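Hi support team,

I'm filing this because I wasn't sure whether my run with iron/sulfur cluster finished correctly. The job status page said complete, but I'd like someone to confirm that the output block is well-formed before I use it downstream. Pasting the exact inputs I used:
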Amino acid sequence: MAIEISDKTINHEFIEKINQLSGQDIRLCFQCGTCGGACPMSENMQTLPRRIMRMLQFGMAHRIADVETGWECASCHSCTVSCPRGIDVARVMEAVRLLVLRKNINRIEPSRLPDGAVREMPQVALVSGFRKLTS
Ligand code: SF4
Ligand code: SF4
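And here is everything the job wrote out:
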Protein backbone atom coordinates (compact mmCIF):
# COMPACT_ATOMS: atom_id res chain seq x y z
CA MET A 1 0.00 0.00 0.00
CA ALA A 2 1.40 3.40 -0.97
CA ILE A 3 2.09 5.82 1.87
CA GLU A 4 0.30 9.07 1.33
CA ILE A 5 2.37 12.09 2.26
CA SER A 6 0.65 15.44 2.27
CA ASP A 7 1.77 18.81 3.57
CA LYS A 8 -0.30 18.09 6.67
CA THR A 9 1.61 14.91 7.48
CA ILE A 10 5.08 16.46 7.06
CA ASN A 11 6.61 17.32 10.43
CA HIS A 12 7.77 20.89 9.75
CA GLU A 13 8.88 21.39 13.35
CA PHE A 14 11.30 18.49 13.00
CA ILE A 15 12.65 19.88 9.72
CA GLU A 16 13.27 23.25 11.37
CA LYS A 17 15.03 21.53 14.27
CA ILE A 18 17.39 19.71 11.91
CA ASN A 19 18.05 22.94 10.02
CA GLN A 20 18.79 24.76 13.26
CA LEU A 21 21.08 22.07 14.64
CA SER A 22 23.01 21.68 11.39
CA GLY A 23 22.95 25.28 10.17
CA GLN A 24 21.89 23.88 6.77
CA ASP A 25 18.74 23.98 4.68
CA ILE A 26 17.90 20.35 4.00
CA ARG A 27 15.17 21.43 1.56
CA LEU A 28 17.93 22.28 -0.94
CA CYS A 29 18.77 18.61 -1.50
CA PHE A 30 17.64 17.44 -4.94
CA GLN A 31 18.45 13.78 -4.37
CA CYS A 32 21.37 13.39 -6.77
CA GLY A 33 23.09 10.78 -4.57
CA THR A 34 26.57 12.28 -4.97
CA CYS A 35 27.03 12.27 -1.18
CA GLY A 36 26.59 8.49 -1.01
CA GLY A 37 28.94 7.98 -3.95
CA ALA A 38 31.64 9.98 -2.15
CA CYS A 39 31.09 8.35 1.23
CA PRO A 40 33.84 5.90 2.30
CA MET A 41 31.43 4.28 4.76
CA SER A 42 28.59 3.70 2.28
CA GLU A 43 29.39 0.00 1.82
CA ASN A 44 28.58 -0.54 5.49
CA MET A 45 25.46 1.60 5.49
CA GLN A 46 22.02 0.13 5.03
CA THR A 47 20.61 3.60 4.50
CA LEU A 48 22.69 5.95 2.37
CA PRO A 49 23.02 9.69 3.10
CA ARG A 50 20.77 10.59 0.15
CA ARG A 51 17.95 8.57 1.68
CA ILE A 52 18.53 10.15 5.09
CA MET A 53 18.20 13.55 3.45
CA ARG A 54 14.88 12.49 1.94
CA MET A 55 13.57 11.19 5.24
CA LEU A 56 14.58 14.46 6.88
CA GLN A 57 12.87 16.47 4.15
CA PHE A 58 9.66 14.62 4.94
CA GLY A 59 10.20 15.23 8.65
CA MET A 60 10.16 11.51 9.40
CA ALA A 61 11.35 11.88 12.99
CA HIS A 62 9.98 8.48 14.01
CA ARG A 63 12.05 6.69 11.34
CA ILE A 64 15.30 8.58 11.81
CA ALA A 65 15.74 7.29 15.36
CA ASP A 66 15.97 3.71 14.03
CA VAL A 67 18.52 4.40 11.31
CA GLU A 68 22.20 3.71 11.98
CA THR A 69 23.65 5.98 9.30
CA GLY A 70 24.42 8.88 11.63
CA TRP A 71 26.47 6.58 13.86
CA GLU A 72 28.19 4.86 10.96
CA CYS A 73 29.25 8.23 9.56
CA ALA A 74 32.98 8.81 10.06
CA SER A 75 32.64 12.62 9.86
CA CYS A 76 35.11 12.68 6.98
CA HIS A 77 33.31 15.50 5.13
CA SER A 78 33.63 13.88 1.67
CA CYS A 79 29.90 14.32 1.18
CA THR A 80 30.12 17.95 2.20
CA VAL A 81 32.76 18.83 -0.38
CA SER A 82 30.93 16.85 -3.09
CA CYS A 83 27.38 18.11 -2.68
CA PRO A 84 26.42 20.18 -5.75
CA ARG A 85 23.86 22.04 -3.63
CA GLY A 86 26.48 23.16 -1.13
CA ILE A 87 24.89 21.30 1.77
CA ASP A 88 27.25 20.42 4.60
CA VAL A 89 25.93 16.86 4.81
CA ALA A 90 28.40 15.94 7.57
CA ARG A 91 26.78 18.59 9.76
CA VAL A 92 23.37 17.16 8.96
CA MET A 93 24.64 13.76 10.12
CA GLU A 94 25.87 15.42 13.29
CA ALA A 95 22.42 16.93 13.81
CA VAL A 96 20.89 13.46 13.48
CA ARG A 97 23.24 12.21 16.23
CA LEU A 98 22.49 15.24 18.40
CA LEU A 99 18.79 14.41 18.34
CA VAL A 100 19.64 11.31 20.38
CA LEU A 101 22.51 12.67 22.46
CA ARG A 102 20.50 15.69 23.58
CA LYS A 103 18.11 13.32 25.28
CA ASN A 104 21.08 12.28 27.46
CA ILE A 105 21.28 8.93 25.72
CA ASN A 106 24.87 7.83 25.15
CA ARG A 107 25.69 5.77 22.10
CA ILE A 108 28.53 4.13 24.01
CA GLU A 109 29.05 3.95 27.75
CA PRO A 110 32.69 4.85 28.52
CA SER A 111 32.59 2.90 31.80
CA ARG A 112 31.73 -0.27 29.91
CA LEU A 113 34.68 -0.17 27.53
CA PRO A 114 37.05 -3.11 28.05
CA ASP A 115 40.23 -2.14 29.94
CA GLY A 116 42.42 -3.39 27.08
CA ALA A 117 40.66 -1.20 24.55
CA VAL A 118 41.09 1.89 26.72
CA ARG A 119 44.81 1.15 27.27
CA GLU A 120 45.59 0.46 23.62
CA MET A 121 43.47 3.05 21.89
CA PRO A 122 45.21 6.34 21.01
CA GLN A 123 44.06 9.07 23.37
CA VAL A 124 42.97 11.28 20.49
CA ALA A 125 40.69 8.52 19.21
CA LEU A 126 39.13 8.09 22.65
CA VAL A 127 38.49 11.79 23.05
CA SER A 128 37.00 12.23 19.58
CA GLY A 129 34.91 9.07 20.07
CA PHE A 130 33.52 10.34 23.37
CA ARG A 131 32.79 13.72 21.83
CA LYS A 132 30.82 12.12 19.04
CA LEU A 133 29.11 9.27 20.87
CA THR A 134 28.32 10.56 24.33
CA SER A 135 25.94 13.28 25.50
S1 SF4 B 1 30.88 12.68 6.57
FE1 SF4 B 1 29.85 10.75 7.01
S2 SF4 B 1 28.20 10.58 5.53
FE2 SF4 B 1 29.63 12.15 4.81
S3 SF4 B 1 31.02 11.05 3.44
FE3 SF4 B 1 31.98 11.07 5.45
S4 SF4 B 1 31.32 9.16 6.42
FE4 SF4 B 1 29.96 9.52 4.68
S1 SF4 C 1 24.91 15.34 -2.69
FE1 SF4 C 1 23.69 17.00 -1.79
S2 SF4 C 1 21.98 17.32 -3.23
FE2 SF4 C 1 22.90 15.33 -3.71
S3 SF4 C 1 21.69 13.83 -2.51
FE3 SF4 C 1 23.46 14.39 -1.26
S4 SF4 C 1 22.75 16.09 0.01
FE4 SF4 C 1 21.29 15.87 -1.66
